[in-house]
Amino acid sequence: MSSLEVSEEVRQYLKTPTFDNWQWEDAEIMVLLQVMYTDLDFISTFNIELDVLQQFLYEVYRRYNNIPFHNFKHCFCVTQMMYGLIWLTDLRSKIDSIDLLIMLTSAVCHDLDHTGYNNAYQINARTELALRYNDISPLENHHCAVAFEILEKSESNIFRNLPTEQYKRIREGIIKCILATDMTRHTEILNKFKAILPVFDFSNKDHRDVLMMIMIKVSDISNEARPMDVAEPWLDCLLQEFFNQSDMEKLEGLPVTPFMDRDKVTKPSSQTGFIRFVLFPLFIELANLFPCLEVRTDSINAVINEVIRKRVRETETHRERDRKRECV
Protein backbone atom coordinates (compact mmCIF):
# COMPACT_ATOMS: atom_id res chain seq x y z
CA MET A 1 0.00 0.00 0.00
CA SER A 2 1.31 3.45 -0.89
CA SER A 3 0.16 6.85 0.34
CA LEU A 4 -1.67 7.28 -2.97
CA GLU A 5 -3.84 4.25 -2.16
CA VAL A 6 -5.08 5.58 1.19
CA SER A 7 -8.75 6.46 0.85
CA GLU A 8 -10.09 9.96 1.42
CA GLU A 9 -12.16 8.58 4.31
CA VAL A 10 -9.02 7.31 6.09
CA ARG A 11 -7.18 10.56 5.34
CA GLN A 12 -9.93 12.54 7.05
CA TYR A 13 -10.11 10.09 9.98
CA LEU A 14 -6.34 10.46 10.40
CA LYS A 15 -6.88 14.16 11.18
CA THR A 16 -9.08 13.45 14.22
CA PRO A 17 -8.13 12.97 17.90
CA THR A 18 -10.40 9.89 18.00
CA PHE A 19 -8.17 7.90 15.61
CA ASP A 20 -7.76 4.28 16.75
CA ASN A 21 -4.12 3.22 16.37
CA TRP A 22 -4.87 -0.37 17.42
CA GLN A 23 -6.52 -1.12 14.06
CA TRP A 24 -3.32 -0.70 12.05
CA GLU A 25 -0.21 -2.83 11.49
CA ASP A 26 3.28 -1.29 11.53
CA ALA A 27 3.62 -1.41 7.73
CA GLU A 28 0.31 0.46 7.38
CA ILE A 29 1.40 2.96 10.03
CA MET A 30 4.48 3.82 7.97
CA VAL A 31 2.21 4.58 5.02
CA LEU A 32 -0.02 6.75 7.23
CA LEU A 33 3.03 8.70 8.40
CA GLN A 34 3.91 9.24 4.75
CA VAL A 35 0.37 10.54 4.18
CA MET A 36 0.90 13.15 6.91
CA TYR A 37 4.01 14.52 5.20
CA THR A 38 2.18 14.51 1.86
CA ASP A 39 -1.09 16.09 2.97
CA LEU A 40 0.69 18.90 4.85
CA ASP A 41 2.45 19.66 1.54
CA PHE A 42 5.91 19.00 2.99
CA ILE A 43 6.92 16.87 -0.02
CA SER A 44 6.52 19.73 -2.48
CA THR A 45 7.38 22.65 -0.18
CA PHE A 46 10.67 21.19 1.07
CA ASN A 47 11.57 19.12 -2.01
CA ILE A 48 11.48 15.83 -0.10
CA GLU A 49 12.01 12.84 -2.38
CA LEU A 50 9.52 10.04 -1.75
CA ASP A 51 12.14 7.28 -1.56
CA VAL A 52 14.14 9.34 0.96
CA LEU A 53 11.03 9.89 3.12
CA GLN A 54 10.29 6.16 3.02
CA GLN A 55 13.88 5.33 4.00
CA PHE A 56 13.75 7.91 6.81
CA LEU A 57 10.55 6.37 8.19
CA TYR A 58 12.02 2.87 7.89
CA GLU A 59 15.15 3.92 9.81
CA VAL A 60 12.92 5.51 12.47
CA TYR A 61 10.92 2.27 12.69
CA ARG A 62 14.13 0.26 13.15
CA ARG A 63 15.33 2.50 15.98
CA TYR A 64 12.24 2.10 18.17
CA ASN A 65 12.65 -0.84 20.53
CA ASN A 66 10.26 -3.69 21.19
CA ILE A 67 9.21 -2.55 24.67
CA PRO A 68 5.71 -2.27 26.20
CA PHE A 69 5.06 1.47 25.81
CA HIS A 70 7.78 3.64 24.26
CA ASN A 71 7.69 1.77 20.95
CA PHE A 72 6.95 2.54 17.30
CA LYS A 73 3.18 2.51 17.87
CA HIS A 74 3.62 5.17 20.58
CA CYS A 75 5.70 7.20 18.10
CA PHE A 76 2.79 6.99 15.67
CA CYS A 77 0.18 7.93 18.30
CA VAL A 78 2.09 11.04 19.32
CA THR A 79 2.67 12.03 15.70
CA GLN A 80 -0.97 11.41 14.79
CA MET A 81 -2.16 13.59 17.68
CA MET A 82 0.24 16.33 16.60
CA TYR A 83 -1.05 16.00 13.04
CA GLY A 84 -4.66 16.12 14.25
CA LEU A 85 -4.00 19.21 16.38
CA ILE A 86 -2.35 20.99 13.45
CA TRP A 87 -5.52 20.52 11.40
CA LEU A 88 -7.97 21.08 14.26
CA THR A 89 -6.39 24.39 15.31
CA ASP A 90 -5.83 25.52 11.70
CA LEU A 91 -2.15 26.08 12.47
CA ARG A 92 -1.36 26.04 8.75
CA SER A 93 -2.81 29.54 8.49
CA LYS A 94 -0.99 30.80 11.58
CA ILE A 95 2.65 29.67 11.39
CA ASP A 96 5.22 28.84 8.70
CA SER A 97 5.36 25.41 7.07
CA ILE A 98 8.89 24.99 8.39
CA ASP A 99 7.61 25.14 11.99
CA LEU A 100 4.94 22.55 11.15
CA LEU A 101 7.66 20.34 9.64
CA ILE A 102 9.69 20.72 12.84
CA MET A 103 6.69 19.79 14.99
CA LEU A 104 5.72 16.69 13.01
CA THR A 105 9.29 15.41 12.66
CA SER A 106 9.95 16.03 16.36
CA ALA A 107 6.93 13.87 17.18
CA VAL A 108 8.18 11.10 14.88
CA CYS A 109 11.64 11.13 16.51
CA HIS A 110 10.80 12.07 20.10
CA ASP A 111 11.43 8.66 21.75
CA LEU A 112 13.93 7.03 19.39
CA ASP A 113 15.82 4.11 20.98
CA HIS A 114 13.99 4.51 24.31
CA THR A 115 15.21 1.85 26.72
CA GLY A 116 11.99 1.49 28.72
CA TYR A 117 13.69 2.94 31.82
CA ASN A 118 13.21 6.63 32.65
CA ASN A 119 15.75 9.36 33.43
CA ALA A 120 15.60 8.75 37.18
CA TYR A 121 16.68 5.16 36.61
CA GLN A 122 19.39 6.20 34.13
CA ILE A 123 20.84 8.63 36.69
CA ASN A 124 20.53 6.37 39.74
CA ALA A 125 21.99 3.38 37.87
CA ARG A 126 24.75 5.55 36.38
CA THR A 127 24.06 4.20 32.92
CA GLU A 128 26.10 5.05 29.85
CA LEU A 129 23.46 7.60 28.80
CA ALA A 130 23.52 9.35 32.17
CA LEU A 131 27.32 9.53 32.09
CA ARG A 132 27.38 10.76 28.48
CA TYR A 133 24.87 13.55 29.11
CA ASN A 134 25.97 14.46 32.65
CA ASP A 135 22.58 13.50 34.16
CA ILE A 136 20.84 16.23 32.10
CA SER A 137 17.80 14.78 30.27
CA PRO A 138 19.81 11.70 29.24
CA LEU A 139 16.97 10.02 27.35
CA GLU A 140 15.79 13.12 25.50
CA ASN A 141 19.35 14.04 24.52
CA HIS A 142 19.79 10.49 23.24
CA HIS A 143 16.56 10.63 21.21
CA CYS A 144 17.84 13.82 19.53
CA ALA A 145 21.23 12.28 18.82
CA VAL A 146 19.69 9.17 17.23
CA ALA A 147 17.35 11.34 15.13
CA PHE A 148 20.27 13.26 13.67
CA GLU A 149 22.30 10.07 13.16
CA ILE A 150 19.48 8.99 10.83
CA LEU A 151 19.36 12.42 9.19
CA GLU A 152 23.13 12.45 8.64
CA LYS A 153 22.76 9.60 6.14
CA SER A 154 22.04 11.01 2.69
CA GLU A 155 19.61 8.21 1.82
CA SER A 156 17.41 9.01 4.86
CA ASN A 157 17.97 12.78 5.16
CA ILE A 158 14.59 14.31 4.33
CA PHE A 159 16.16 17.77 4.70
CA ARG A 160 19.03 17.19 2.28
CA ASN A 161 17.68 19.52 -0.41
CA LEU A 162 17.28 22.49 1.94
CA PRO A 163 19.63 25.48 2.27
CA THR A 164 22.02 25.40 5.24
CA GLU A 165 20.16 28.15 7.12
CA GLN A 166 16.85 26.28 6.89
CA TYR A 167 18.51 23.07 8.04
CA LYS A 168 20.01 24.88 11.05
CA ARG A 169 16.58 26.25 11.97
CA ILE A 170 15.02 22.79 11.68
CA ARG A 171 17.75 21.16 13.76
CA GLU A 172 17.44 23.81 16.48
CA GLY A 173 13.65 23.43 16.53
CA ILE A 174 13.65 19.63 16.69
CA ILE A 175 16.15 19.63 19.55
CA LYS A 176 14.07 22.18 21.49
CA CYS A 177 10.88 20.18 20.99
CA ILE A 178 12.31 16.79 21.92
CA LEU A 179 14.13 18.14 25.00
CA ALA A 180 10.80 19.68 26.09
CA THR A 181 9.33 16.18 26.53
CA ASP A 182 11.43 15.66 29.68
CA MET A 183 8.68 15.73 32.33
CA THR A 184 11.00 17.31 34.90
CA ARG A 185 10.63 20.49 32.80
CA HIS A 186 6.82 20.30 32.75
CA THR A 187 6.08 23.12 35.21
CA GLU A 188 8.77 25.39 33.74
CA ILE A 189 7.39 25.10 30.20
CA LEU A 190 3.73 25.33 31.23
CA ASN A 191 4.43 28.48 33.27
CA LYS A 192 6.24 30.06 30.31
CA PHE A 193 3.21 29.39 28.13
CA LYS A 194 0.76 30.77 30.70
CA ALA A 195 2.88 33.93 31.02
CA ILE A 196 2.76 34.74 27.30
CA LEU A 197 -0.85 33.66 26.65
CA PRO A 198 -2.46 37.08 27.33
CA VAL A 199 -0.21 38.70 24.70
CA PHE A 200 0.43 35.69 22.45
CA ASP A 201 1.67 36.71 19.02
CA PHE A 202 2.10 34.13 16.24
CA SER A 203 4.64 36.40 14.54
CA ASN A 204 6.88 36.31 17.65
CA LYS A 205 9.45 33.49 17.31
CA ASP A 206 9.89 33.11 21.07
CA HIS A 207 6.13 32.70 21.46
CA ARG A 208 6.01 30.15 18.63
CA ASP A 209 8.89 28.19 20.18
CA VAL A 210 7.01 27.85 23.47
CA LEU A 211 3.81 26.88 21.63
CA MET A 212 5.68 24.18 19.71
CA MET A 213 7.02 22.78 22.98
CA ILE A 214 3.51 22.77 24.46
CA MET A 215 2.13 21.06 21.35
CA ILE A 216 4.60 18.19 21.51
CA LYS A 217 4.05 17.84 25.26
CA VAL A 218 0.28 17.63 24.77
CA SER A 219 0.72 15.13 21.93
CA ASP A 220 3.15 13.04 23.97
CA ILE A 221 0.77 12.52 26.90
CA SER A 222 -2.54 12.69 25.07
CA ASN A 223 -3.67 9.07 25.22
CA GLU A 224 -6.19 9.85 27.94
CA ALA A 225 -7.78 12.48 25.69
CA ARG A 226 -8.73 9.72 23.25
CA PRO A 227 -11.81 7.48 23.48
CA MET A 228 -11.54 5.11 26.45
CA ASP A 229 -11.35 1.95 24.32
CA VAL A 230 -8.26 3.42 22.63
CA ALA A 231 -6.72 4.87 25.80
CA GLU A 232 -7.15 1.89 28.16
CA PRO A 233 -4.74 -0.52 26.41
CA TRP A 234 -2.09 2.22 26.43
CA LEU A 235 -2.34 2.52 30.19
CA ASP A 236 -1.79 -1.24 30.50
CA CYS A 237 1.32 -0.91 28.32
CA LEU A 238 2.63 2.02 30.37
CA LEU A 239 2.07 0.27 33.70
CA GLN A 240 3.87 -2.81 32.39
CA GLU A 241 6.88 -0.66 31.55
CA PHE A 242 6.67 1.07 34.94
CA PHE A 243 6.51 -2.26 36.77
CA ASN A 244 9.48 -3.58 34.80
CA GLN A 245 11.48 -0.55 35.96
CA SER A 246 10.47 -0.79 39.63
CA ASP A 247 11.28 -4.52 39.60
CA MET A 248 14.74 -3.70 38.23
CA GLU A 249 15.22 -0.94 40.80
CA LYS A 250 14.43 -3.38 43.62
CA LEU A 251 16.73 -5.99 42.12
CA GLU A 252 19.62 -3.52 41.83
CA GLY A 253 19.04 -1.87 45.22
CA LEU A 254 18.18 1.50 43.67
CA PRO A 255 15.55 3.96 44.94
CA VAL A 256 12.15 2.66 43.80
CA THR A 257 10.05 5.17 41.86
CA PRO A 258 6.79 5.28 43.90
CA PHE A 259 4.34 5.67 40.99
CA MET A 260 5.93 2.65 39.28
CA ASP A 261 5.79 0.21 42.19
CA ARG A 262 3.50 -2.70 41.30
CA ASP A 263 2.82 -3.22 45.03
CA LYS A 264 1.44 0.31 45.46
CA VAL A 265 -0.03 1.43 42.13
CA THR A 266 -3.46 0.66 40.71
CA LYS A 267 -4.77 1.59 37.29
CA PRO A 268 -7.40 4.10 38.44
CA SER A 269 -5.10 5.76 40.99
CA SER A 270 -2.35 6.23 38.41
CA GLN A 271 -4.84 7.64 35.89
CA THR A 272 -6.67 10.07 38.13
CA GLY A 273 -3.68 12.07 39.38
CA PHE A 274 -1.96 12.18 36.00
CA ILE A 275 -5.03 13.37 34.12
CA ARG A 276 -6.10 15.90 36.73
CA PHE A 277 -2.72 17.45 37.53
CA VAL A 278 -0.71 17.01 34.31
CA LEU A 279 -2.81 16.43 31.19
CA PHE A 280 -5.88 18.52 32.02
CA PRO A 281 -3.99 21.76 32.90
CA LEU A 282 -2.03 21.48 29.63
CA PHE A 283 -5.19 21.09 27.55
CA ILE A 284 -6.92 23.92 29.44
CA GLU A 285 -4.10 26.37 28.64
CA LEU A 286 -3.89 25.26 25.01
CA ALA A 287 -7.68 25.67 24.74
CA ASN A 288 -7.27 29.25 25.98
CA LEU A 289 -5.31 29.90 22.78
CA PHE A 290 -7.42 27.59 20.60
CA PRO A 291 -11.07 27.58 21.81
CA CYS A 292 -11.82 24.75 19.36
CA LEU A 293 -10.03 22.43 21.82
CA GLU A 294 -12.61 22.96 24.56
CA VAL A 295 -14.45 19.87 23.35
CA ARG A 296 -11.31 17.84 24.13
CA THR A 297 -11.22 19.20 27.68
CA ASP A 298 -14.85 18.07 28.04
CA SER A 299 -13.79 14.60 26.91
CA ILE A 300 -10.93 14.57 29.41
CA ASN A 301 -13.33 15.60 32.18
CA ALA A 302 -15.55 12.66 31.22
CA VAL A 303 -12.55 10.33 31.44
CA ILE A 304 -11.65 11.71 34.89
CA ASN A 305 -15.19 11.07 36.14
CA GLU A 306 -15.21 7.54 34.72
CA VAL A 307 -11.80 6.80 36.27
CA ILE A 308 -13.00 8.08 39.66
CA ARG A 309 -16.05 5.81 39.42
CA LYS A 310 -13.75 2.88 38.61
CA ARG A 311 -11.52 3.74 41.54
CA VAL A 312 -14.50 3.81 43.93
CA ARG A 313 -15.67 0.42 42.63
CA GLU A 314 -12.14 -0.99 42.93
CA THR A 315 -11.77 0.32 46.50
CA GLU A 316 -15.10 -1.23 47.48
CA THR A 317 -14.03 -4.56 45.95
CA HIS A 318 -10.75 -4.50 47.91
CA ARG A 319 -12.59 -3.69 51.15
CA GLU A 320 -15.07 -6.51 50.58
CA ARG A 321 -12.20 -8.91 49.90
CA ASP A 322 -10.42 -7.79 53.08
CA ARG A 323 -13.61 -8.26 55.13
CA LYS A 324 -14.00 -11.81 53.81
CA ARG A 325 -10.38 -12.58 54.71
CA GLU A 326 -10.94 -11.28 58.23
CA CYS A 327 -14.00 -13.51 58.59
CA VAL A 328 -11.97 -16.54 57.56
Automatic annotation (TrEMBL):
Assigned keywords, A-Z: cGMP, Hydrolase, Metal-binding
List of residues binding Zn(2+) 1: 74, 110-111, 220
GO MF annotation, one: metal ion binding
InterPro entries reported for this sequence: HD/PDEase_dom (IPR003607), PDEase (IPR023088), PDEase_catalytic_dom (IPR002073), PDEase_catalytic_dom_sf (IPR036971), PDEase_CS (IPR023174)
UniProt record, GO biological process: signal transduction
Enzyme type, top EC level: hydrolase
One Pfam family it belongs to: PDEase_I
Keyword Transferase carried by entry: no
Record field: catalytic activity: 3',5'-cyclic GMP + H2O = GMP + H(+)
SMART domains xrefs: HDc (SM00471)
Residues the record lists as binding AMP: 70-74, 111, 220, 271
Enzyme Commission code: 3.1.4.35
UniProt domain PDEase: residue ranges: 1-316
Family assignment from sequence similarity: Belongs to the cyclic nucleotide phosphodiesterase family. PDE9 subfamily.
Biological role stated in the UniProt entry: Specifically hydrolyzes the second messenger cGMP, which is a key regulator of many important physiological processes. Highly specific: compared to other members of the cyclic nucleotide phosphodiesterase family, has the highest affinity and selectivity for cGMP. Specifically regulates natriuretic-peptide-dependent cGMP signaling in heart, acting as a regulator of cardiac hypertrophy in myocytes and muscle. Does not regulate nitric oxide-dependent cGMP in heart.
The protein's name in its UniProt record: High affinity cGMP-specific 3',5'-cyclic phosphodiesterase 9A
